[in-house]
Amino acid sequence: MKNQKTFLNLLFVAVLFLCGCKNTNERTVVQTEAYADIFAMDTYMYIRAYGENADTVLKIVEERILSLEKIFSVTELNSDVWTVNHADGETVEVSDETISVLRSALDIANKTGGALDITLYPVLTAWGFTTEKTHIPDEFELAEALALVDFGKVKIENNSVTIPEKMNIDLGAVAKGYTSDEVVNILHEYQIESALVNLGGNVHVLGTKPDGSLWKVGIRDPFDSSKTVCIVELSDAAVITSGNYERCFTAEDGKKYWHIIDPSDGFPANNGIVSVTVIGTDGLLCDALSTALFVLGTERAIEYWQNNGEFEMIIVTDDAKVYYTEGLEECINFEADTEREVLHRE
Ligand code: ADP
Ligand code: MG
Asked: Does residue 225 carry a pLDDT above 60?
């Protein structure tokens, strides 16, 4: 179900891209074009690149994605994350990439007051999000899982990681962002000047479109998956959304529950936000913040943006109102009747 939804998301961005392609101008495009469809990190990925030897470069990119999946996977035997989670309180050595992602995630966890917490895995398991057998956990089970959550207990020294026994880490909220940064780095390294990277709805564009115009990225309407709530036109940026429609279920009580969890109580973050999109140049930061700001709620997310900057954001609330930061004013397009408000710095 999730995969199907993700695939639709992907298709959706791809369709937008194709529409955007129609306005090619007279400039002769000499680049070669290549595509890659990859299933990795439990999601469909699609990359389109333009440049000499784009085909060969995409093969290198694909290998890199698969190697990152191997180290970040929670379930794959002997992945870095698996090794940390099965160390029974002992210290283990992991790769430079894992250390780098862990350090960044812990930094954002600190800055967001724990809204992002990479040790939530037992809680996600209690809700069944890790197995797709979703259900409301019983009170006791949830309390037990929540007692194991505390990113402050993850200790890192050089390439060594130590976590308490029974604690489990999961990089699900940040791994795709880091991966898109890596993909873009490789593309740059091989002189690719134009590319669209879509890792299951995490979009990262490199340069402009081959005709020199800006990429158009549609932000999904959380209330209607066939529509966009707005379209942003940009170059060289990551556009990453966390939404309550991605992985969710309706329980016996008739209520909807989703996969973005508030670490303070172990329940899906339910504060009026239905989606947060973060736009910036650092994919990992955008990915981490899209999850963390979703948890913080509109007011505290705005405050965070005002104090930290370095990114733009679009928040959609459950009353279908859209808040967007002032840096997007020139490049965001809405349907005329969308209720919206521009956010300014204090
Ligand atoms: P998606 O993976 O659907 O694109 P996100 O980037 O928002 O969405 O990541 C959500 C994933 O991160 C969840 O599937 C879960 O594994 C994990 N997660 C959920 N809530 C949190 C949280 N508060 N902090 C860290 N990780 C979280
Ligand atoms: Mg995220």
From this structure: yes
pLDDT > 90? residue 21: no
Distance (angstroms) between ligand 1 centre and the Cα of 165 equals 22
Give ligand 1 pocket residues (Cβ under 6 A): 116-118, 120, 124, 170, 172-173, 242, 246-247, 259-261, 263, 287, 290-291, 295
* Beta sheet of 194-199, edge-to-edge order: 33-40, 43-50, 194-199, 202-206, 237-243, 273-280, 312-317, 322-325, 340-343
- Listed range (6-20, 86-100, 181-195, 271-285) with the worst mean pLDDT: 6-20
Q: Closest Cα to atom 4, ligand 1: which residue?
A: 242
Residue 346 has pLDDT above 90, yes or no: no
For residue 259, pLDDT over 80 is answered with: yes
- What are the tens digits of pLDDT across the range 297-322? 999 999 999 999 889 999 999 999 99
Average pLDDT along the chain: 91
Which amino acid is located at 298 in the chain?
T
Tell the residue nearest (CA) to atom 8 of ligand 1. Answer: 242
Sign of CA dihedral 134, 140, 143, 144: negative
Best substitution site from 42, 291, 293, 296 to test ligand 1's pocket, by max atoms within 8 Å of Cβ? 291
Q: Is the pTM of this model over 0.85?
A: yes
- Which atom of ligand 1 lies closest to the CA of 201? 4
d(CA 338, CA 325) in angstroms, rounded, equals 16
